[in-house]
Amino acid sequence: MTLQIGNIALENRLFVAPMAGVTDRPFRMLCRELGAGYAVSEMVTSRKELWGTLKTSRRANHDGEPGPISVQIAGTDADMMSEAAQYNIERGAQIIDINMGCPAKKVCNKWAGSALMRDEPLALEIVEAVVTAAAPHQVPVTLKMRTGWSEDHRNAVTLARRFEQAGVQMLTVHGRTREQGYKGFAEYDTIAAVKAAVRIPVVANGDITSPEKARDVLALTGADAVMVGRAAQGRPWIFREIAHFLATGTHLAPPLVVEVRRLMLDHLREHYALYGDYSGVRTARKHIGWYVRALPGGEAFRGAMNAIEDCDEQLRAVAGFFDTLATRMDRIPHASDAVEPSDEHAADTLA
Predict the structure, then answer these.
(1) Distance CA 184, CA 243 (A)
(2) Which helix H or strand E contains 243, and what residues bound it?
(3) Do residues 18 and 69 lie in contact, with contact meaning Cβ atoms separated by under 8 Å?
């Protein structure tokens, strides 16, 4: 089943969530290779003075990335957000996504991200400005938000209607308030209410960690697609597992150890190429940790990674770990044995 955003047809209804420090170009491309139909970039700031920084230039790097290229922008000023949309469109963005979902304090303290849901007039002003900037280029605008700021201030349905009227062409709703962060459990009644209130596609996000959960959330909400975040960290093949289950009702076998070895090494090489040797070997550690966290000897290996400061040495260590693992098992253990990333870490990374 395909999905349309404006004039753009997506491959399927399985999306990669934007996660700061995680969903860079190598990770997005890996998830696309493994079954995701759509991936949104890490959020790019609307502050013009930061566009020339190395951090932003990496986030705006789409070299060799398959379309559609979707870039998430964040900010609190309508004019600045309009400029940010134009800036990213000029650099290849085919879809602009507005961030009103990030709960991180460093974002919300500046009244960006999910904090914008507290100021409905400003939120609407920003949406109108971005839609106006993107329209001449025929670039659709999407938006990611939460159910509301707090338990007593759930306004996702009200905002969804206004955003649709302003020209937003797809909405993603994370089933938690900003107050919750990533604690507790996502609820899907609000997502279902948003879906019932608008005619544009709605994407369900939050706690989608298995094929069964994806199926159930789609059924509960009536959503047009699901967005996976933390569950794809170290397990990017979750997208093909979900796709297979939705299509057949049966489970796909976990990947072979030798396949994961190849995927990891390819991922690391692409990671080093983007970040350079010094930053690459250090920022790769979190990805390696996620891949091995549920594997025999994974915790000890994860600790050893922190002492390695050379890319080639890191590659050899990873290759050796999986070569040894392949002598013990053919396939990666079932996902139910995996350990989820901590809420504290997730709160710093998910947008």
Answers:
(1) 27
(2) helix 238-248
(3) no
Q: What is the pLDDT of residues 251-260, one digit of tens each?
A: 999 999 999 9
Q: What is the distance between the alpha carbons of residues 40 and 24, in angstroms, rounded to a whole number?
A: 9
Q: How far is 190 from 195, CA to CA, in rounded Å?
A: 9
- b vs e for 245-273, b when ≥16 Cβ sit within 10 Å of the residue's Cβ? bbeeeeebebbebeebbebbeebbebbbe
How far is 212 from 107, CA to CA, in rounded Å? 33
| 310 burial type by CB count under 10 A (0-12 exposed, 13-18 middle, 19+ buried) | exposed
Name the band, by pLDDT with cuts 50, 70 and 90, for residue 345. Answer: very low
Q: Annotated catalytic residue: which of 31, 102, 108, 311?
A: 102
Residues recorded for the chain = 351
Which of 47-56, 146-155, 222-231, 327-336 bottoms out in mean pLDDT, i.e. has the lowest?
47-56
In 206-332, DSSP assigns E strands to 225-228
Task: Please tell me the distance from the alpha carbon of residue 174 to that of residue 308, in angstroms, as a whole number.
Answer: 37
Active site residue 311: no
Whether a cis peptide bond, with omega within 30° of 0, leads into 211 is: no
Output the pTM of the full model: 0.90
